[in-house]
Amino acid sequence: MRPKTDFTRKRRSCATASGSIRSELAELQLTDYGLDRPESGDDVVVPFTLENLDSRGRVVRLGDALDQILTRHNYPAPVARLLGEAVVLAGLIGSSLKFQGKFILQTQTDGPVNLIVVDLDAPDGLRGYARFDADAVQRAIEMGETKPGQLLGKGHLAMTVDQGQHMERYQGIVALEGGTLEDVAHTYFQQSEQVPTLVRLAVAQLSLKGERSPKWRAGGVLVQHLPPHGGRTMPDLPGDGNFDNPETADQNFAENDKWTETRSLIGTVADDELADPAVSPERLLFRLFHETGVRVFDAIPLEERCTCSAERIEGMLRDNFTAEERADMVVDGEIEVVCEFCSADYHFHLHDFDDVKH
């Protein structure tokens, strides 16, 4: 089991106003409250448990890794922000899987941003790509219609677990109906796992001291309610899992008080806190849960890493295309392949495939 640290602070010592709490906690030394290691920086996942609230979760904080993914393609800002949210979501979900393989998050929709693909190459490699209609995105910007649901439109989101050759792939699919990635994540967990789940995602472009240009940053938190003695934790279908919507929620279901408290605390998180380099994942968790207690585990590092290579692409050209099809790909005497994720440029000649029988 990964090393862990317990945070607990007595209720009587807490300030009462939200602003004063943030100000007070910003000055605290977390080592005085049980943290036995330095606070985490960027490009990490920090798992945590809330034993007194029967919940567990993860916080993701991305800095340079996300900036590399987003700036490599010079995306328009709304597209970059949307892809950034998808990268955070993939990090939150994929980092929980205990296998050597890939977690793949993919959207296919009819909106201006019609395709997003994010891979987490377990345990720590992230890459992402967005395909979009430049004219449609520009019109959306001019009309002020750049919310995630407006850019995505309708379609579906697929989450795939690929454990490699000779292992069965698992895929879950959920409809995208013009909502946010947070919305679709909630629907996914309600339908696939029947586990009460709350997801928060935030992406920002910030000018940091000492940097020549603004940098993309992001953060997210995922928390799930897992009572130790089982029992009914979700409303019966049909029902959208939104306990605050009287038209769709299961009226015969009473939400667990501990989950109500957890949701309320997570609801106080501001987007700027999730992406703020001055608020480490541990400090964020301490601010939220110092009254009930939170146990944090060692951070898991993440990095931007593409899995493409000349060998992989040559193998793809050998195995998936005939000699005639490869000949049709030749331009100026060579076949050029550009990786959509990292923009790496690969060049091949037909004689590289002389030993292929088809």
Task: Give an overview of the whole structure.
Helices cover 28% and strands 27% of the residues. It has 358 residues and is of the alpha+beta class. The strands form three sheets. Strands 1, 2, 3, 9, 10, 11 and 12 form a seven-stranded antiparallel beta sheet that branches. A six-stranded mixed beta sheet has the order 8-7-4-5-6-13. Mean pLDDT is 84; it is low at 10-18 and 231-243.
- N-to-C series of helices and strands: EHEEHHEEEHHEEHEEHHHEEEHHEE
Tally of DSSP β-strands: 15
- Describe the global form: globular
Strand content: 25-35%
Oligomeric grouping of the chains: single chain
Helix run count: 11
Mean pLDDT, all residues: 84
CATH superfamily annotation of the domain at 42-230 and 298-304: Hsp33 domain
Main traits of this protein?
358 residues; alpha+beta; Hsp33 domain; CBS domain Like; seven-stranded antiparallel beta sheet; six-stranded mixed beta sheet; 11 helices; 15 strands
